[in-house]
Amino acid sequence: MFNRDYHLNPFIVIWELTRACELNCLHCRAEAQYKRDPRELSFEEGKNLIDQIYDMDNPLLVFTGGDPLEREDVYDIAEYAVQKGVRVSMTPSATPNVTQEAIKKAKEVGLSRWAFSLDGPTDLIHDHFRGTSGSFDLTMKAIKYINELNLPLQINTVVSNYNIEVLEEMAQLVEDLNCVLWSVFFLVPTGRGKISDMITPDQHEEVFQWLYELSKKVSFDIKTTAAQHYRRVVIQNKRDEKNNHADKINYAQSLRNGQTGTIDGLGRAPKGVNDGNGFVFISHVGDVYPSGLLPVKAGNVRETPLSNIYRESEIFKQLRNPNLYKGKCGVCEYRFVCGGSRSRAYALTGDYLESEPYCTYIPKKSI
């Protein structure tokens, strides 16, 4: 796992089982619909896809949507994957589908982790962001079930103008809810997401610094999504701390936490994952993208094996070569561990190789 070559195999695969969902979230990447699409990959196609994923050095597999629980066969698919030896987690929506029986079934089939979205410490903020009254209460009730069953819990939070002032309260809530991981997403204006909902580049930097300080004193791990430049902040901070009493440390040492081979205390990839670089997204109809936030289609698993698309698509090959990045990202000394969000670059410029538009750092080579 730690020696994985991202040119050959991804570290993580996200499969959008369905776009059906009862919620109406303001930022929804999938622009989810209330009914299932009849073109979804079938159960047999899903098993074939899992076989292909497993053969790519068995990366992590995440079921997402829409709401994966809108598929009646979701646990049959999960059970097939788990019995094959794939580590599976799931990100269902907080709807009436999330019953105590559903959570119990997830544990019985061997789900590695259950992830819920929680975008505010109160129902007023969360329900507004999720576009559905009662979502906060449903989420809290479901989390209670998850804790009772000792199923590892992950909380996903999208940082936006709606909640940036209450992140301290959010962090305390995540601690109180006995989470193993807080996955902090930074809004990309795709799908229903709007540029006006994004925090500023300076605010990104402030939140990164806050997250780094927070990571040193909480019981849960912290990871970021669509915020690759958080890695640069981690490196800078650890380098400064080390310089107080020792020689400079290199990138690998900066990214590792103790002897566990984890990145900045996050317990996952040994090197930076980015859109198309260690990361692949498969839509409900089998279309393959560098990520769910980068809607540039590279192929379809009904027509081409996943490994061929990931390894041979020009889109993926370009994204795995940071030397092709443009502007300051292309000359930045952190480009191989950061690289900026390729999704945000595409959303705001139309070019996935352009510089990360919401990074304030000025590379040394461009000074």
TrEMBL record:
Keyword set includes Nuclease: no
Pfam families noted in UniProt: Radical_SAM
CDD domains in the record: Radical_SAM (cd01335), SPASM_MftC-like (cd21123)
Superkingdom of the organism of origin: Bacteria
Record's keyword annotation contains Disulfide bond: no
Matching PANTHER family: RADICAL SAM DOMAIN PROTEIN (PTHR11228), TUNGSTEN-CONTAINING ALDEHYDE FERREDOXIN OXIDOREDUCTASE COFACTOR MODIFYING PROTEIN (PTHR11228:SF34)
Protein's recorded name: TIGR04053 family radical SAM/SPASM domain-containing protein
